[in-house]
Amino acid sequence: MATELLRVVVAPDATDTASPAGASSVVPDPRRCIQGRGAWLHRDLECAELAQRRRAFARALHVSHAVDAAPVIEYVVARYVNRPPGAQRSSDERSREEQEN
């Protein structure tokens, strides 16, 4: 189900050139509104780390150079790790997420 997945995209400012380290950032798109090719990921730390180890982000996003998935992993940790299944986000978390996007 799409509500259980997190959309990720290459950072809009990284589409023209790679960062100085040679890697574009992959960022979460929880509102699903950032333009460009997106990939879908379970909201689970193990899944995000596995995708990073297997270089799945670059393949799924059709990027020919290395990508930095740290923003996605930080997002997943901050919002979904150590949260009981089915737990609702607080109003503070919802408003903070809306402000980020």
Please, could you describe this protein's structure?
This protein is α+β, with helices and mostly antiparallel strands. It has a single domain (2-100), classed as Hypothetical Cytosolic Protein, Chain: A, CATH 3.30.1230. Helix content is 35%, strand content 18%. It is built from four helices and four strands. It has helices spanning 45-53, 56-60, 70-80, 91-100, and strands spanning 5-10, 24-28, 38-42, 67-68. The chain starts with a strand and ends with a helix.
Q: Which key terms come to mind for this protein?
A:
single chain, 101 residues, alpha+beta, four-stranded mixed sheet, 4 strands, 35% helix
CATH fold type: Hypothetical Cytosolic Protein, Chain: A
Low-confidence stretches: 16-20
**Basic shape:** globular
The strand count comes to 4
Number of helices: 4
Order of helices and strands: EEEHHEHH
CATH architecture: 2-Layer Sandwich
N-end to C-end Cα span = 22 Å
Q: Which percent bin holds the helix content?
A: 25-40%
The CATH class label is Alpha Beta
Structural class, by secondary structure, is alpha+beta
Report the sheet with the most strands, covering strand number, pairing sense and barrel closure.
4 strands, mixed
Content of β-strand: 15-25%
Widest sheet: strand order?
Answer: 3-1-2-4
Cα Rg: 14 Å
Number of domains: 1
Q: How confident is the prediction overall: mean pLDDT?
A: 82
